[in-house]
Write a structure and sequence with these properties.
Elongation Factor Tu (Ef-tu), domain 3; 190 residues; 4 helices; 18% helix; alpha+beta; two-stranded antiparallel sheet; six-stranded antiparallel β-barrel
Length: 190
């Protein structure tokens, strides 16, 4: 896995050739990674937008009280938060009003749609956490191309055998040769 730092720029949309629209977020890099290509699957880690002190309806999705039948001023209140003498306390983790947002968020399953190495920007599918110009960490597995795999082969295996040198036998090659010889022997016997 490879981690790179980026900065969120703005939201946009990209139209494909078949007419579909994809929401994208533009990000910029200080140093553009050469192994980040369109189609690369990524995860993005960032700090979500802070929402300040929020009530239970916004923070936890509480329904609220009915609008009529003597509701008075309790329409957005949380209601009861616990028992009476027993247990004599409020249980830990009770959903209440409080600060919302401003937490580390990881968004998975995103992909790179477009890259522009000259301007050091990329367009990533979907929404990313945080406000504009906030810092992000992009985590991805660099895609391995056939050329880079061929470059990583040791030179003695990549070069053709010189005359007079016997070929190097690997355990896989020996087992394949033995299997071929056994097949030949069984066909000759029958």
């Amino acid at each position: 896995m490879k981690k790179i730092e980026a900065r969120k720029l703005d939201m946009a949309q990209v139209f494909t050739e078949d007419g579909n629209v994809h929401p994208v977020t533009a990000v910029s890099f200080e140093e553009f990674p050469t192994d980040l290509t369109p189609g690369t699957r990524i995860r993005v880690v960032g700090i979500s937008k802070g929402k300040g002190f929020s009530g239970v309806m916004k923070r936890h999705g509480f329904k609220g009280m009915p609008a009529t039948h003597g509701r008075s001023t309790k329409g957005r209140a949380p209601g009861s938060i616990g028992g009476t003498t027993t247990p004599g306390r409020v249980y830990r983790g009770k959903r209440m009003a409080g600060r919302m947002g401003g937490e580390q968020v990881t968004i998975q399953g995103l992909s790179v749609l477009e890259v522009d190495p000259e301007s050091k920007t990329a367009k990533i599918s979907g929404a990313l956490p945080g406000p504009r110009l906030s810092g992000l960490t992009i985590i991805y597995e660099p895609q391995v191309s056939e050329q880079s795999v061929a470059d990583n082969v040791p030179p003695e295996e990549n070069q053709p055998q010189a005359e007079g040198n016997p070929p190097v036998e690997t355990p896989e090659a020996k087992s394949q040769e033995e299997g071929v010889k056994e097949k030949e022997e069984t066909t000759n016997e029958s």
